[in-house]
């Protein structure tokens, strides 16, 4: 059963990675990052039940991951809104001030 | 290749929830409107919460529903409201970049799948404690007390920072 959960997490992680690499809308990129973090959480919780030594440490660690992910989402949206005020776009390809 | 799958009720529940999660994620990548993407990913998050219940992590499952479906999705919808998405869906495709990204992701998945299949996981030695929420609470306030407090400080700093970042421009103009 552990292998099935790990495979599902790998599928979700790869879909999230594809979204981060291909999508241009900054909000979709942020959501894809959340999807990747969720895949990692699934791994942690699967190991906390089906690992060699089942313990609650994996679940506690996934709680910490979720907290940090929530903070990341809040700061990400704030940065996005500040950028949108300056550039009037959410297209990540146009955020290229450092390249000019 | 031996998959070692026994067709029990747990497997069927896992299969159903896994299909829901993957379908939600794939649709989220394919939808053209941002709001549809957000709702589709909320569906994926709910399916993942179901999987957590299946893994006997009830507390984490409810935190998942509260935090991801409740907070992160709503935050993203506010982000969509604050920004403009008029010309979406009409952008020209970038076939080379998309193909390269797809190949890279498939390669990564292949490597991960091979590693998962070739690693022999021994059977678990013991069971999890019965009262999940009580045990997590005790752990958080005894063994993980300092990380718990640090995380609360991090959350406060992040949210104050978010408010400051989103507000500063208005005062200037």
Overview of the structural elements:
- The complex is a heterodimer of chains A (100) and B (173).
- By secondary structure, chain A is mostly helical.
- Chain A has a single domain (2-94), classed as Helix Hairpins (Orthogonal Bundle).
- Helices cover 77% and strands 0% of the residues of chain A.
- Chain A is built from three helices and no strands.
- The longest helix of chain A is centred in the last third of the chain and has 31 residues, at 57-87.
- Chain A is elongated, with a radius of gyration of 17 Å.
- By secondary structure, chain B is mainly alpha-helical.
- Chain B folds into two domains: 7-84, Up-down Bundle (Four Helix Bundle (Hemerythrin (Met), subunit A)), CATH 1.20.120.1200; 129-173.
- Chain B is 75% helix and 0% strand.
- Chain B is built from six helices and no strands.
- Chain B has helices at residues 9-30, 34-54, 58-82, 95-118, 132-141, 145-172.
- In chain B, helix 1 runs antiparallel to helix 2 (34-54) and helix 2 packs antiparallel against helix 3.
- Chain B is globular and about 55 Å long.
- The chains are: A mainly alpha (100), B mainly alpha (173).
- At the A-B interface, helix 1, helix 2 and helix 3 of A face helix 1, helix 2, helix 3, helix 4 and helix 5 of B.
Distance between the termini of chain A: 51 Å
Give, in order, the helices and strands of chain A.
HHH
Q: What's the CATH architecture name of chain A? A: Orthogonal Bundle
Relative strand content of chain B: under 5%
What is the overall shape of chain A? Answer: elongated
Q: What is the fold named in CATH at topology level of chain A?
A: Helix Hairpins
GO cellular component, one term (chain B): plasma membrane
Subcellular location (chain B): Cell membrane
Membrane topology (chain B): Multi-pass membrane protein
GO molecular function (chain B): NADH dehydrogenase (ubiquinone) activity; oxidoreductase activity; quinone binding
Main traits of this protein?
heterodimer; A: 100 residues; mainly alpha; 3 helices; B: 173 residues; Four Helix Bundle (Hemerythrin (Met), subunit A); Nuo/plastoQ_OxRdtase_6_NuoJ (chain B); transmembrane helix (chain B); oxidoreductase activity (chain B)
């Amino acid at each position: 059963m552990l292998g099935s959960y790990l495979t599902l997490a790998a599928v979700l992680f790869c879909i999230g990675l594809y979204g981060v690499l291909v999508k241009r809308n900054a909000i979709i990129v942020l959501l894809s990052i959340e999807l990747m973090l969720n895949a990692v959480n699934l791994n942690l919780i699967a190991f906390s039940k089906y690992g060699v030594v089942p313990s609650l440490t994996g679940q506690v660690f996934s709680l910490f991951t979720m907290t940090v992910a929530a903070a990341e989402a809040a700061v990400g949206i704030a940065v996005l809104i500040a950028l949108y005020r300056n550039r009037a776009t959410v297209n990540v390809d146009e955020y290229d001030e450092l390249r000019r | 290749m031996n998959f070692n799958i026994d067709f029990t009720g747990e497997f069927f529940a896992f299969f159903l929830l896994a299909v829901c999660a993957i379908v939600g994620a794939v649709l989220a990548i394919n939808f053209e409107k941002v709001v549809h993407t957000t709702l589709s990913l909320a569906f994926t998050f709910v399916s993942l919460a179901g999987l957590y219940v299946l893994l006997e992590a009830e507390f984490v499952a409810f935190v998942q529903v509260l935090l991801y479906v409740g907070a992160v999705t709503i935050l993203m919808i506010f982000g969509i409201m604050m920004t403009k998405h008029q010309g979406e869906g009409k952008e020209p495709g970038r076939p080379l970049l998309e193909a390269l990204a797809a190949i890279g992701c498939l390669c990564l998945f292949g490597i991960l799948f091979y590693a998962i299949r070739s690693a022999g996981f021994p059977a678990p030695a013991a069971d999890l404690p019965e009262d999940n929420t009580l045990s997590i609470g005790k752990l958080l306030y005894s063994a993980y007390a300092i990380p718990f407090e640090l995380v609360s400080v991090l959350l406060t700093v992040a949210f104050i920072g978010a408010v400051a970042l989103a507000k500063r421009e208005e005062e200037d103009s």
